[in-house]
Amino acid sequence: MAEGPGARILVIKLGALGDFVQALGPFAAIRRHHGAAEGAHITLLTTGPYADFAAATGYFDAVWTDGRPGALDVGKWLDLRRRLRRGGFRRVYDLQTSGRSSFFLRLFWPGPYPEWSGVARGCSHPHANPRRDFLHTLDRQAEQLRVAGIAHVPAPDLSRIGADTARFGLPDRYALLVPGGARHRPAKRWPADRFGALARWFAGQGIEPVVLGTAAEGGVVDAVRAACAEARTLAGETDLADIVRLARGAVCAVGNDTGPMHLIAAAGCPCVVLYSHESDPALCAQRGPDVTIVRRERLADLSEEEVANAVKVRRPSLTGR
Q1: What is the value of pTM for the model shown?
Q2: Which of 91, 130, 259, 299 is most open to solvent, judged by the fewest CB atoms within 10 Å of its CB?
Q3: pLDDT, tens digit, for every residue of 31-74?
Q4: Helix (H, G, I), strand (E, B) or coil at 43
């Protein structure tokens, strides 16, 4: 059994951002389940972009960021193997369940092998449902943990995540816009000029439009600002904790199916998420207390009026600012 005084537990979650956010409930469930064993030590194996955020959740005693060595980087693979074998792990929860993360089980050769929850061949607690890939991410992970003896998985909880966003000098009423997304999947993006038109609509309602994104998404952000001079951009200025805090204060949010919208939804902000044929909300939709999904085969066919009609603006007294 993995339970017991001094049990050492490993959790694997490498990314991406949306998937990481949707693993927060499983993280909490694993911590609670093994917390009954006094002295249980839980380590997360992840990648650099999520290290600080993972540490801030309070679910882990250690965070490792060497979970994605290059295919031909033999030295880093050997370092990871040594680290895993020396970790003394009694159980591993592979929440990535990819070919790469499943291969990590083989790094324990010639043994001893830890108990393993995942899809790796020969693991002790396999999630063997042949339709697992047809389940929503949260439902799939909950089922995987039930197989491993963890009966209840809560919704993602961001209450421990905080940041001082006063430096941004935002007004009491602002809306978040997330016009970016994966560069290699442009069909997942609503046209930037439509975001600009929506920004003008928010400004006309006395709500400051605030555009989020990475520094690499500057072109999209600039297009939104070109269409709406009142729009404020924070592209490249926010980390994950900032996005959570901004979401708590915003009256609403609108964005493409991209990682930050998972954070915003889980933080409780009323949000509208835009989907095209490129992704299926039945499998990966953002979840939170107030999420509206708007889907079109082609996002270019979606008008700003339709999106504006889906927006729910909460009163300032409910924003927690």
Answers
A1: 0.92
A2: 130
A3: 999 986 667 899 999 999 999 999 999 999 999 998 888 888 89
A4: strand
